[in-house]
Design a protein that fits this description.
With 363 residues, this protein is α/β, with parallel strands linked by helices. The protein has 15 helices and 8 strands. It has a single domain, classed as TIM Barrel.
Length: 363
């Protein structure tokens, strides 16, 4: 486990140097070795179980104008929708009956759904016994608190890029500092936190990518979503090239080696660029898949990028295909909700790997 050991070195600047070298090295053998180690580390730390989370994209309204995203508010060509709360809960109930153990609620930054509305939705879905993950963007800490009190277990909020200038350029009117403050609020409220970034954003150099990975590690997230950027025609980045699939797989493997404890999905963005993306993700560090359980009539309108995978199939069909893939890979479908690894489990796994003094790294 040569690369794993290198990347677990407590010296940050050494790790950064290694990341720069690895990211710049295009030899296929390097990628293969990183993927092999990532697969071993995944197995040792989070096992063979694949967590299947059902995602409901409940509103494509958004007050923001992120330069990469098709939901940005200046996209007047997009037909907008909001799923009424009762219908969201009904979709979730059906998914739980199908076997889903986590429901992910995602939307644009849409303040139509008030603190109380989302708290009510969370309470009703929690009553089914499923875990609830929210991904509804930047909101006041008081909203996050109310939802946590209503029972929400997890929150996904990617930082998208670690470069403050690039962040400002891509997200008019907001800043990386605000995003990081939200992540801190979520952490303090006791959420299991998910974050991540995109690969291949215009202006993202190898150096930025290395810093993205280091920022991700410093957040110690329970989950991390890492996927390629895909240009959308109704955005300022319409003419920029998509992120590279091979580089995305390399960064996914590196993420596993840096964050051995984390739940890492094989992202939809990766499957959208590469038909075998899910399989490649799951065999190179990932242990989570998130089939889309939004009713198809809404789903095609949640166009954060074009040609999104899974726009047509019914939730049942997607669920079945997902289970089949997991079995084909010789893995199993997780029977538990897939919460973040406990601090005790992390430290005992680290203790067994005695190549460094972990106390220096993770306090
Ligand atoms: N390409 C790839 N991923 C995108 N996202 C948004 N727009 C795009 C795009 N054009 C991702 C962001 C966001 C998540 C919901 O979707 O990382 O956090």
């Amino acid at each position: 486990m040569r690369y794993y050991e290198l990347l677990q070195n407590p010296d940050q600047s050494f790790v950064k140097e290694q990341l720069n070298i690895l990211l710049a090295d295009d030899h296929p053998e390097v990628l293969e070795e990183l993927r092999r180690e990532a697969d071993q580390v995944r197995q040792r730390w989070v096992g063979d179980a694949v967590h299947v989370r059902g995602i409901i994209e409940f509103s494509n309204y958004c007050i923001r104008s992120c330069h990469y995203c098709g939901l940005n508010r200046s996209n007047t060509r997009l037909q907008r929708y909001r799923i009424p709360p009762e219908e969201i809960v009904e979709i979730a109930r059906e998914a739980v009956a199908m076997g889903f153990k986590t429901i992910v609620l995602q939307s644009g930054d849409d303040f139509y759904y008030t603190r109380e509305m989302i708290a009510d939705i969370v309470r009703e879905i929690k009553a089914t016994g499923a875990a609830v993950t929210l991904s509804v963007g930047e909101r006041p800490a008081e909203d996050y608190r109310a939802w946590r009190e209503a029972g929400a277990d997890r929150y996904l909020l990617k930082f998208e890029t670690s470069d403050p200038d690039l962040y400002k350029q891509l997200h008019p009117g907001t800043s990386l500092a605000i995003r990081l403050r939200c992540l801190r609020d979520l952490r303090e409220l006791g959420y299991q936190v998910g974050s991540g970034f995109m690969i291949g954003l215009p202006g993202q150099t190898g150096e930025v990518l290395a810093r993205d990975l280091l920022l991700l590690r410093s957040l110690e997230p329970e989950m991390a979503g890492i996927g390629p950027f895909i240009p959308h025609p109704a955005t300022p980045l319409s003419r920029d090239p998509a992120g590279d699939v091979t580089l995305s797989l390399k960064v996914l493997a590196l993420s596993r080696l840096l964050l051995p404890w984390a739940h890492l999905p094989a992202t939809t963005a990766l499957s959208s660029l590469e038909k075998d993306g899910r399989r490649l993700g799951l065999t190179g560090g990932a242990n989570v898949v998130m089939p889309n359980i939004t009713p198809p009539k809404y789903r095609r309108l949640y166009e954060i990028y074009p040609h999104k995978a899974e726009v047509k199939d019914s939730p049942h069909e997607l669920y079945r295909a997902t289970l089949e893939l997991i079995r084909e890979l010789g893995r199993e479908v997780a029977g538990d909700p897939g919460h973040g690894l406990s601090a005790e489990k992390r430290s005992s796994l680290y203790k067994e790997e005695s190549f460094y003094d972990r106390n220096q790294l993770y306090q």
